[in-house]
UniProtKB/TrEMBL annotation:
Pfam families cross-referenced by the UniProt entry: Acetyltransf_1
Location of the N-acetyltransferase domain: 9-177
Protein name from the UniProt record: N-acetyltransferase domain-containing protein
Any one GO MF annotation of this record: acyltransferase activity, transferring groups other than amino-acyl groups
Keyword Transferase listed: yes
Domain of life per record: Bacteria
Length: 177
């Protein structure tokens, strides 16, 4: 567990017993991030499939995935998911790790917590020996794109995002450590 003194911020790795409340945090933070730009019923359909307690429990059980929880003043404020071993062809290097998810609850936007969470993810990736960190982001999510660019990520290709019967093309962004 890592702590940030000034903000009462801690990080911890999620465990299978966290699946229920982590599913709720995931659904809520995803909805808050996309409700203004993703039409219904598509948004709810995706959330209802991707963030069930059973789905989150299965992801927690995957040895190639790590959920990092950001806790502020003893309350969950956001999380990230690091995923190993699923690199796209453009990054077919075993020294790359994906930040598959990085979300905060909207109440914490603009408070620097995203920076704390990203910094923690990059330190963890470096500690594990990865040379590259990559992620996929919807190009229309300009808030996220600007955040990632500020952290030194650059567009390196495209990456499919599957939702229902549709496939969107996200940007694949990467950063060398």
């Amino acid at each position: 567990m890592e702590s940030m003194n000034a903000e009462a911020i801690t990080f911890r790795v999620a465990v299978p017993e966290d699946a229920g409340w982590l599913a709720g945090l995931s659904a809520r933070s995803f909805r808050e991030a996309y409700q203004a730009v993703w039409e219904e019923p598509g948004l709810s359909d995706y959330i209802n499939r991707a963030f069930t307690p059973d789905q989150v429990h299965a992801e927690l059980a995957d040895p190639n995935s790590t959920f990092i929880l950001l806790i502020r003043n003893d309350e969950p404020a956001g999380y990230a998911k690091l995923r190993r071993g699923h690199n796209p062809p453009d990054l077919d290097a075993t020294t790359a790790v994906q930040i598959q998810r990085l979300y905060l609850l909207a109440a914490y936007y603009g408070r620097g917590l995203g920076d704390h969470l990203m910094g923690h993810c990059l330190r963890e990736a470096g500690r594990e020996g990865f040379a590259t960190v990559w992620l996929a982001v919807w190009p229309e999510n300009t808030r996220a794109v600007k955040f990632y660019q500020r952290w030194g990520f650059a567009v390196a290709g495209s990456y499919p995002f599957y939702h229902g019967n549709e496939v969107a093309q996200d940007w694949l962004m990467k950063k060398d450590l």
